């Protein structure tokens, strides 16, 4: 199956499992995803903001807070917050101080959190990239925050390891900063093979030994990507937000291969 058709099949499967595909935020630049997150912040914090949406200055202040995330662990701590609710501080233009809620760890797989899929996102002006543009395949968002990055490849094992190296290059380019510092898990998917790994702390720490496949409850390998997506269901529960920087899969065990 061609990569573009396989990508569409993955998106269709995610939609059938409860994820919302955002066509209006696909095939766009990262700035549009910041706009989307801003809308979600305004909606989820309406009472705290007293029905006054974030000003441009206030949103820039929120974005500046994200620069504190130097590693996935830092981002995990920001998501975990206090009592399972991740927040960022905000000084409003009128001098009011408050905490904006950005993530609800206790609501993963339920509650009023949003589970969304976007694809073909273009990055420009990456800090250390020699290329003017980078385009990724699929990103999974929870409450507008990118938490998982998926790249699809054909069945060639070499191409799948090329995808692993591609993630490493993305990291070295400075892709996982700002809003994208929240990416915790990276996936390499093909029609009959699936691997995942926790995003390392930096581009020099990528190691193939930490790329895993899956086994089901009976100890059998799960090699069909569509079966994998069905087993995990909404929202894949790929992260245990109560355990910082640890990746887990509900009802599945790691299978290094």
UniProtKB/TrEMBL annotation:
EC number: 3.1.21.3
One example GO MF annotation: type I site-specific deoxyribonuclease activity
Domain of life: Bacteria
Gene3D superfamilies referenced in this protein's UniProt entry, alphabetically: 3.90.1570.50
One Pfam family cited in the UniProt record for this chain: HSDR_N
Record-annotated Restriction endonuclease type I HsdR N-terminal domain positions: 3-202
One GO BP: DNA restriction-modification system
Catalytic activity: Endonucleolytic cleavage of DNA to give random double-stranded fragments with terminal 5'-phosphates, ATP is simultaneously hydrolyzed
Keywords, comma-separated and alphabetical: ATP-binding, DNA-binding, Endonuclease, Hydrolase, Nuclease, Nucleotide-binding, Plasmid, Restriction system
PANTHER family the record matches: TYPE I RESTRICTION ENZYME ENDONUCLEASE SUBUNIT (PTHR30195:SF16), TYPE I SITE-SPECIFIC DEOXYRIBONUCLEASE PROTEIN SUBUNIT M AND R (PTHR30195)
Family membership: Belongs to the HsdR family.
Protein known as: type I site-specific deoxyribonuclease
